[in-house]
Amino acid sequence: MRYRLVILSCAAVTAAATAPSMPTAQAQAQDHGQMGQTWPVIEPDLLSVIKARLDHAQATGKLDKMNQQFAAKVKDRVMRPVPVPGMARAEETRSWEFDPAIVVENDIRDHQGNLIAARGQQVNPLATSGLSKKLVFVDGDDPAEVEWALGHEPDERAKIIFVDGSPFESMRTHQRRFYFDQEGKLSSHFGITRTPALVEAKGDLLLITEQAIPRGPS
Question: What is the pTM of this model?
Answer without folding.
Answer: 0.62
